[in-house]
Write a structure and sequence with these properties.
The complex is a heterotrimer, with two copies of chain A (235 residues) and one copy of chain C (285 residues). Chain A has 235 residues and is mainly alpha-helical. Helices cover 51% and strands 11% of the residues of chain A. Chain A is elongated and about 85 Å long. With 285 residues, chain C is mainly alpha-helical. Chain C has eight helices and three strands; from the N terminus they run αααααααβαββ. In chain C, strand 2 and strand 3 form a beta hairpin. Classes of the chains: A mainly alpha (235), C mainly alpha (285). The interface between A and C is large, with 76 and 63 residues.
Amino acid sequence: MDTTNLKRIIEAALLASPHPLSLPQLGALFSDTEQPGPDAIARAIEALTLDTEDRGVALVEVASGFRYQVRADVHPWVARLWSERPGKYSRALLETLALIAYRQPITRPEIEQIRGVVVSGNIIRTLEEREWIRVVGHRDLPGRPALFGTTRTFLDYFNLRSLDELPPLADIRDLDEMLPQFDFAAASLRADAGPIAAASIEDDAAPSPATAVEAEASADAPEGTASAPPEEFRA
Amino acid sequence: MDTTNLKRIIEAALLASPHPLSLPQLGALFSDTEQPGPDAIARAIEALTLDTEDRGVALVEVASGFRYQVRADVHPWVARLWSERPGKYSRALLETLALIAYRQPITRPEIEQIRGVVVSGNIIRTLEEREWIRVVGHRDLPGRPALFGTTRTFLDYFNLRSLDELPPLADIRDLDEMLPQFDFAAASLRADAGPIAAASIEDDAAPSPATAVEAEASADAPEGTASAPPEEFRA
Amino acid sequence: MHSEPSEAAPANVPQGVFGPIPQQQEMPLALVRGLPLLQMPQDLYIPPDALEVILEAFEGPLDLLLYLIRRQNLDILDIPIAEITRQYMDYIGMMHEMRLELAAEYLVMAAILAEIKSRLLLPRPPAAEGIEDDPRAELVRRLQEYERFQKAAADIDALPRMERDTALAQAQVTDRVVVRLPPPVDLRELLLALRDVLRRAELSGHHAVRRDALSVRQRMGEVLKSLQDGAFHAFQTLFDPGEGRLGVVVSFLAILELAKEMLVEIVQEAPLAPIYLKARIAASE
């Protein structure tokens, strides 16, 4: 086994293996007759290590052996491979969030009573992780249920200065009839979202059923309104 | 983003990703401001491909993008990392797959018509579980039989960029020219069938339910038993 | 080998398609071992055990036919139907003994072969000598078509493939953090969700949701938050004079509402003494 081929085999094995490989493990790849011996393997690894010097991956030795790994300086780009596409929240989550917003402080049993169904722990956890709700206290009842309220982050995300800027409950019940007012609210939201703002201004200038539908569609498109709130939401 | 860093990031991303990455997916690693553009990425991939020329791995393009993979000539050593040999596929499965690949979209009855034999549900299930085929529609016939087509996973698995890269289907008119070749194929198949014959003789010597099962199992391993009966059966 | 033929029934090789079709109980599928030697054609000695293995190896009647044709080095375009039919019948005769479910497809082919054979034996009018009239044509076409895909299957099998010929090369990524982008929510969606839940609540009738000054509700949460340590807090520390009169009123209403909902305890040890507030249950509990 010449040095070139030894290097080629060891590089391929280290890259194919799901875990680090030790010198004995690398040696086991070769039959007795072609056995290069640990020194030769170690020298091949040294050469391979040098080869990676300018590259995006490095050949490193860890406790259980040798492996190729992504270099720290390119990691920020590589990490984007694992960014998950935002999905959509369930209706149950939105209802729960809305009830917490309008009826805070409120306990889970109370939400369940109004919604008529059990609220899953996942929903509460998701809302807490997003820092839209938090526990603000406990009701003095058996089990001491937690009282939930919304946070500043919640207000910031929806571009509200205070909860008072949410439409009154009475209006919400008749959302359909309140469409003009509602559109306005949606438009003001979109205005902050940047590119869509222009469209909504046009809508206002020349309101027509067609543009209204279009505006609605763009409001619903999750990617359009963007996964991340525009900068100013967070400022 | 200079070329060196672009190359480093792309190499690291391809090696980090558990599946091939397309040009758009590679582009998505960069923010809008640092976006190198598809041409620059393609050039970086070209350069990286050249870099691998003498190495144990190759940068290849398959249907769903680019990936690094072990070169075939060193794979026998690398394969020793895994105790299990990769499974062989039965002729029935390969013929079914070939019909779906070359004749897609195609229904099961149509496959059965050409093969002259019923296609077992197991084969379809295996192909679907491997994500090599999928239902692409239904024929407008009684029973609305499902139309099968191949997937990108199929192309990726067989190192193909597109269906165009499948080996060309033999022309019917060339068949008589190919006859000697068939003989050759038949001969080699017969040679392969040897061990099975031995196995079944052994079964005769010591009949037991266990060996019977084994004989059946080996009969299922299609490449081995092959299309032709072993030599002695025709002597 | 096979020096011990069992006492099982004598071979019952059907003589052709029109031969007696055995009843199911005569063909136990599992019966392989101990079956007496079938009456084989001279050139086709196959021990019964092996026969099953071989039959498994055929992918159907077309495959068997192709095998027979190849075995005799015959031009596929010029099949000696009589000879092939004879051999074929012998095979399916043996199959009959072994596997009923195989036989069905093979029997159809036997019928086709027999039909072709009989048509070839009949004198043909001289005018109709075209290829289309060759009764073998359709069979040849099917055999050719099937052979193409046999070849295609072998070609696919020969393609370099993952696992067998290559493996994905991967480098370790340390600190793999999933950058999770949370789903976006539109205020409109939120309000529509609320409308639905309110409508449902109204339908069930019992849960009238009152209209509240939301700023009071918000302040209730804030007050509770500041009381969450469970300790007593002086009443006036809960007010921010910087908020102005309205802010103070909102805070005061919030405290009253909290008291009404039994969420806070208000303590005053003597008239005009300092007032203290405490959450009835601290969040930390």
